[in-house]
Protein: DHH family phosphoesterase
Organism: Coprococcus hominis
Amino acid sequence: MNDNRHTDTRHEIYLQMPLYVIALFVLCDIWMLTVSVVAGIVGIIFTAVYSVVVIVLYISSRVSSEAAYANRAMENGRVQKDLIREFPIPYAILDKTGRLAWVNDEFAHITNTSKRKLMRLTAMQVFEGLTHEMIPGECDEPVHADIEYDGKEYRVEIKNIRVNPDGPVDSVQEQETSEHEEEMENLPVTEDQPQEKKTIKRKKHTGVTNFTAMYLFDMTERNKLAKENEEQKLVTGLIYIDNYDEIFDDLEEVRHSLLVALVDRKINKYMANVDAIVRSFEKDKYMFVMPKKYLPQLQENKFALLDEVKAINIGNDLPLTLSISLGTEYKSFIEDFEAARSAMELALGRGGDQVVLKSNDKITYYGGRSQGTEKSTRVKARVKTLAFKELLETKEKVIIMAHKNPDMDAFGSAIGVYRMVNSMNKEAHIVINEVSSAISPIYGNFTANSMYGDDMIINNEQAIEMINADTMLVVVDVNNPSLTECEELISYAKTVVVFDHHRQTKDVIANATLSYVEPFASSACEMIAEMLQYMDEKIKLRPSEADAMYAGILIDTDNFLTKTGVRTFEAAAYLRRSGADVMRVRKMFRSDIDSYRQKADGVRNAEMVLGMFAVSVFEPKEGPESPIVLTAKVANEMLNIAGVRASFVIAQLGDDVKISARSIDDVNVQIIMERMGGGGHANIAAAQFTNTTKEEVKEQLVNLLEEMYKEGDI
């Protein structure tokens, strides 16, 4: 509008220019009269005639020009009105309640509704995906939303339009405003609208009007192409046979080729259903790529390949198990492959027989129901021991730490590492902040012995002061940094070594120089006992050290009843030869009468869920025995009940609630506890909760057990 006014002003000045010349002629006539009267009279006559002609032309031209400008403006208005009405993008104007005040032809076309009927509806009544909250206020930013209507997908933009006819506003907005005002004036007045109509009329006269415009952009084809593009992206994955060597060592040689052929056929046939390309790059390792659109299909059948391969039996005593890893949703295909490799390490660290899907924002697990196959070979233990020895030679000092509230396995494995370090004449310290009742029976054997020195056991502050570039940090019986005695030490240490037997989760110690995680081992003490035999033939454990490590194996295996393999007994035999006394250890860890009664109460409270899971809720009291240890003992005791495949003890420990889970059958309690935010390994797992009650945790656990049993996950 300013541009139009500016144009009108310039045109007016152009028309008035001849009038200004009249004044110039008058001055010339006055000067001519002073020179010659005759010449002056002639000039006056000429000026008079010129003035009459100019004035007549000015009046007639101005009238015709205004008419031409008016016609042009009216023509522009009609063009703009037709343009916005025939605009190919659906467009509507709403009032502040969301009611449709005006719509263009395309809007009426896509809704297949007449304009008159639309004027009686709100945008929320026409489109189910819209709400009143989406109508922006006067100062709000435009609102965007995605909706579906009549089988099509639309991107909706709703924004305010502030129109001031006397100010700088474009003609399209002015046309929209006038049309909206006309529509509002013609609409019938209802009980909830008279005040609104009065307000709009008042705004019309004050010159400022606020409206809400709504645009609909058809995104159907674009979303379809985007989906097709996303589905055609490649997902990379790896397939490893977990127990290849163990299976073939146990199978007749003439059947080896038959087993390999059957496995290849199962894998290739399964992957052919999802348009995947599979290639074997080692005797027990495969790589595959597949379109992403088939990934939901594999997730829906929970990667049935795991069970199909496990069903192969041509005389092999052990079932064949696979580990599968996939990487997806990263920026490049190379990153996807690296994610698949990382996921495979996680799958193997969790015991195999499962699928790990790693994307850029989360990790998903499938399978993992079997207990895994014990590795009979000690090659890995020997290799890790030699690597540890080489690292140890480059350091002057070693700090050893386990998890918070250390148990006997944590303390015993720390003692074993301490002995390895001392055998190479290196300084060693063990980080323990609080002596729990779980280790107190044997803890005094070391603190009261002058051979170990006063600085054998240190706290967090002392460890942080000691650590430097020549210090190695050894973490035992835990691989989750948040569960360690002092998480800060991990970031300070230049060299970190991890020895653990728990199944890995997504939270692992990422900067470990050497990591030896063996989920098939019964305990960390078993792993360290094997390493001691490869460290140096001259190492001779003291009886108290052998007792500590033997007690760690004894507690973690529940007196050699759970997760016990050939290597477990071999490690126990080594410790027995080193001076471990079975009766001495047993006497150390006997329960007092009050703790035994509490354990009996915990068993008495047990309820059967689905006829196979024992669930007990009780509140242990403080006493000589730690409530955490007592909870674990109740869980172990309930496994002696006939028909129980897994036991769960829910205990109120102050403001926290803890679940201690144990299994004796093929139930993997780790995947159950992971669903509840905890972890562990196949036979022993736990979870801890805050700001809740034991009754609520029990309800959550029972619902989860029923759901997982129904889905076939346990």
